[in-house]
Amino acid sequence: MNQARIWTVVNPTVGLPLLLGSVTVIAILVHLALVENTTWFSGYWNGAAKTAAAAPAVAPVAAPAKK
């Protein structure tokens, strides 16, 4: 581990909870941003059914050219 000497400055009983706590806070903020800024995510969490996929549009067949 190339950052092993950090524990001579910061006690592991303080540094590890701060590290893990900051990761947890970031994860919660990302999920909150998803819920607040999308229309589908809250429905997904509430178990909303998927909407039926639209049938693909069929291209009209061209009429044969007149001779």
UniProtKB/TrEMBL annotation:
Residues 3-41 form the Antenna complex alpha/beta subunit domain. Coiled coil: none annotated. Gene3D superfamilies: Light-harvesting complex. GO terms for cellular component: organelle inner membrane; plasma membrane; plasma membrane light-harvesting complex. Its main location: membrane. It holds the Pfam family LHC. GO terms for biological process: photosynthesis, light reaction. The core complex is formed by different alpha and beta chains, binding bacteriochlorophyll molecules, and arranged most probably in tetrameric structures disposed around the reaction center. The non-pigmented gamma chains may constitute additional components. This is Light-harvesting protein B-800-850 alpha chain.
